[in-house]
Amino acid sequence: MPEQRCYDLRVEYQRAPIGVGVHQPCFSWLATGVLDAFEVAVDRGDGRPAWRSGRVAGDLPAVEYAGGPLDSNQVYRWQVRAWLDGAGEPSEWAASTFETGLLGPADWHAAWIGPKQEPTAMERWTLVDWITGRRPATPVEERLRPVQLLRQRFQVQAEVTRARLYATAHGIYTAQVNGQDAGDEVLAPGFDSYRHRVSVQCYDVTDLLTAGENELGFALADGWWAGRIGISGSSAQFGAETSATWQLHLDHADGRTELVCSGSDVESATGPWAYADLFVGEHFDRRVEPTGWTPVALTGENTAMLRPFTGEPVRRILELPALHVTGDAETGWIVDFGQVLAGRIRLTVREPRSGQVVTLSHTETLQPDGTWFDNIKGINKEQTDVYVAAGLPGSETYEPVFTFHGFRYTRIHGLPSAPALDDVVAVVLGSDLEWTGSFETSDPRLDRLHRNVVWSQRANFLSVPTDCPQRERAGWTGDIQVFAPAATNNAQVVPFLSRWLTNLRADQLPDGRVPIMSPYSPYDAESAAAATGIGAIVAAAGWSDAIALVPWTLYERTGDRRVLEENLDAMLAWVDAPQPGSGFGDWLTPSTLEGRPIHEAIGIAPALTGALVAPMFQARTLTVTALAARALGRYTLADQLERRADGVRAEFAAAHVSADGRLPVDLQGPYALALAFGMIPGPLRAAAAARLAALVEARGHRLDTGFLSVPYLLDALWDNGYPELARRVLWQSEMPSWLYEVDRGATTIWESWDAIAPDGTVRAGSLNHYAFGCVDDWLYRRVAGIQPTSPGYRTAVIEPDLAIGVDSVRAHVGTPYGRLAVAWHRAGDTAEIQVTVPPGITATAWKVPLVPGENTVSVTLPIH
């Protein structure tokens, strides 16, 4: 009999983390058998016990700390053992460690400090300015300011056994100890709703210290705090001046802890960065040395809103080689990396001349003839980096530090000859998620579609879930609401999305309304208050509902009740808030855009569908909130919410559903949503489904669903008797369709279905929006057949669509119990399905029970 054991121990989803910022961390692990009971023991670093769970019966390999208060900045050792497969004796103890961060405001002793600087000019641009392309009178580089350098010298007199640096900024920063990077994350501290919370990073810098004099060095740029962000590219949306704060904890061999805190002894200067902006790019002159160090000022800013960073930081997660180079020195060398991505270039300049200026421009696509095309038009969104060489012997290498871009192609000016392929590398940036799923088939087009989704998720899960990595980079709530189910299949996203939901809750308005994006800046609020029409929308159906739908999705896929506990009050506040008007409706419905200028067309779908979408999402969110309340044991509340949802559905049916099951707006989207959300009375569902099928047929099996309804179309057809029609929509190759993009060479998911026309004409717009990639969840559930039937995949059904039109599929998802995998192959009228079931999951395939481990099921088609 194999050894029974626990393994892959984690705290807050991470292995042996430092800087854990929650008072009651969750411990989780995997086990070699079915879990009957477990025991967890937690000890302080000196061996004193902190908590003993005792034997706990349960089948979920996770438990929340329930001992006394944890100390800040401390090392803890924890162990787990389990009773598995009905065994009378437990397994051996498995052990790991974690470290706490600074858990409370009283732990922060450092001051906010600010270098001498000219405040960022507050440039305010409207949605109309962006659409019309109105430009400022002066070049953007003349309106930017230099990066600030900070330094603090300190002495280390005794042996240091452990050193932790806690740091953050209003702006983005890099931290060094004695000239070496404190950590490998970039763009710290990340994007937060800075009015309410600012994340603090924790770095292990023990090995960077030396006896005697040491130096902390920081570089500080505008970032999301003061730089140009959002759809308008307006600056100083949170603040006009940057600042930083840090404290270094030195644990000595004699038991003492010493603090080195930011304060009046810090000096500042400018250096090689003439400017750095997230949108515009950065200008780096390697010849410039910092001079004129001057004392900083104590800014007196509030430290009570500092919070330990949670989740995964932004890092350099991949590198892509250049595939080929075209162009010339005059027009610019165009480098193709073969993949649209979010990141930046690392360029090696051979035999550089002192003062040689090299510029790096970025775009996601080229003109049909291969010439340069700026696919993102907008204010302050140049996406251009400038490097000035120092003339060092041999070569110089440059990679931007304080910016990132959305691109596939880079145009290089300033090199007399074409760069060697090895001299240009695309450095992919993103929040460093653990990728837990995979999907591949015998059809290369479906495989490319799935990879496009993954690449869009990778590019837009960057500090916060964004809409696109080049034009807006905003945390639109609607985008993640429709994409969250697909996201959970591909990666472990609970820490990442939980951090974002913390920002969203902080941004929730006093009357319960949930903003359409988060982080939501003071400028966003001012802009909406001064605008009319679409620009005045603060909360919207389908967008604001993310406060309920995203946590529920996370709970369904992981079984983590904490996401419900953390968000239930915010859900309740939203369902009791003043309901929005028409909002965005079923945004970007294709037929409403065809043949019209975009500034005229974008308002049509909201006007047509808004009155239908609002009550549908109200009913759906009431239902989900009721489910969340019931999962948390609040049964009376759940009953009340269910009655309210029933009332909304009854009112909707009375007002909008005709006696023959028709809706007043004859578009695919409203029918798909109405069927998915139970808005059609039972006797009329068949008629409504028939009407949806007729609308799909009338469009030649092409999509005519908008932003909110795309995730539901294929299931609405499948679940209501039209599976073959759903398959035809998936396989459609004419625009608008998923495979139209694939056939046009897409390597990510486009914002608009017609971003590249059938004749090759390219329109300005984002080629990297994950929202329409929501179909990836359907691929996992229907094509691979992996369907959770209870939270956390505790129970699951494996029923792949063997008639989808491919010969084979391989896929897996990560679950709290381990890897759940499916591989099926079809030959003629028979198919063989191999399923790997981790211990603890009860799964069936066409009602045939599966056992833990490897299973093989053979079926004859068709299956009845």
What does this structure look like?
- The protein is an alpha+beta fold.
- Helices cover about 25% and strands about 30% of the residues.
- Among the domains are: about 5-100, Immunoglobulin-like, CATH 2.60.40.10; about 105-315, Sandwich (Jelly Rolls); about 315-425, Sandwich (Jelly Rolls); about 475-575, no CATH class; about 795-860, Sandwich (Maltose phosphorylase, domain 3).
- The protein is built from 18 helices and 44 strands.
- Strands 19, 20, 24, 25, 26, 27, 28, 29, 30 and 31 form a ten-stranded mixed β-sheet that branches. Strands 13-12-15-10-18-21 form a six-stranded antiparallel β-sheet.
- A hairpin with a 4-residue loop joins strand 3 (about 35-45) and strand 4.
Mass-distribution shape? globular
What integer is the average pLDDT? Answer: 95
Overall structural class, as computed from helix and strand content, comes to: alpha+beta
Relevant CATH superfamily of the domain at 105-315: Galactose-binding domain-like
> Oligomeric status of the shown chains?
single chain
CATH structural class of the domain at 105-315: Mainly Beta
- Roughly what percent helix? 10-25%
Largest sheet, in brief, is:
10 strands, mixed
Which regions contain 5 or more consecutive residues with pLDDT less than 50? none
Count of alpha/pi helices: 18
Give the distance, in angstroms, between the N- and C-terminal Cα atoms.
39 Å
Question: How large, in whole angstroms, is the Cα Rg?
Answer: 28 Å
Topology-level CATH name of the domain at 105-315? Jelly Rolls
Q: Could you say what the CATH architecture of the domain at 105-315 is?
A: Sandwich
Write down how many β-strands occur, each being a DSSP E stretch of 2 or more residues.
44
Q: How much strand?
A: 25-35%
